[in-house]
Design a protein that fits this description.
Elements lengths: L2 H19 L10 E6 L5 E9 L2 E9 L6 E8 L2 E9 L6 E6 L9 E8 L5 E7 L1
Antiparallel strand pairs: 1-2, 2-3, 3-6, 4-5, 4-7, 7-8
Length: 129
């Protein structure tokens, strides 16, 4: 029995498992991240993070197509506090918006909505912080 042939696959599998399990976490402590699919071929991400006594809220749409215009809005506990238009850019064909509203007592609920201009495509996300 050739010990090298027997143990080599085990060593590769063990090394791979260690690398995969020791990869750094994407989110910081305290971050709350939600992801989902849009009504068509795009995805959304909504993240809430502590930010000096406030809450940093980041909404993102990734459609893999550059040049698409999207109308977006964010609400905080049911009240719209930010809105605008963004165009997907870069290789990923995405856009991101960031706002830092105040942190109310109790659980804060943020909603992110993005509608692709001229189409019925819509992305909706909710995160509670």
């Amino acid at each position: 029995m050739n010990i090298t042939r027997t143990l080599a696959p085990l060593a590769v599998a063990t090394s791979t498992a260690i690398l995969l399990t020791s990869a750094p976490a994407i989110a910081n402590d305290g971050d709350v991240i939600r992801r989902g699919g849009c009504s068509s071929a795009a995805t959304w991400k909504l993240k809430a993070s502590p930010e000096n006594g406030r809450i940093e809220v980041e909404g993102e749409v990734d459609s893999n197509r550059r040049g698409q215009t999207w109308a977006w809005s964010m609400s905080h506990n049911g009240t719209r506090f930010a809105a605008g238009r963004r165009t997907t850019q870069g290789r990923s064909g995405s856009f991101e918006v960031r706002r830092v509203p105040r942190n109310f007592r109790g659980t804060d609920t943020f909603r992110f909505t993005a509608r692709r201009v001229g189409t019925s495509q819509v992305c909706r996300g909710v995160v509670r912080f």
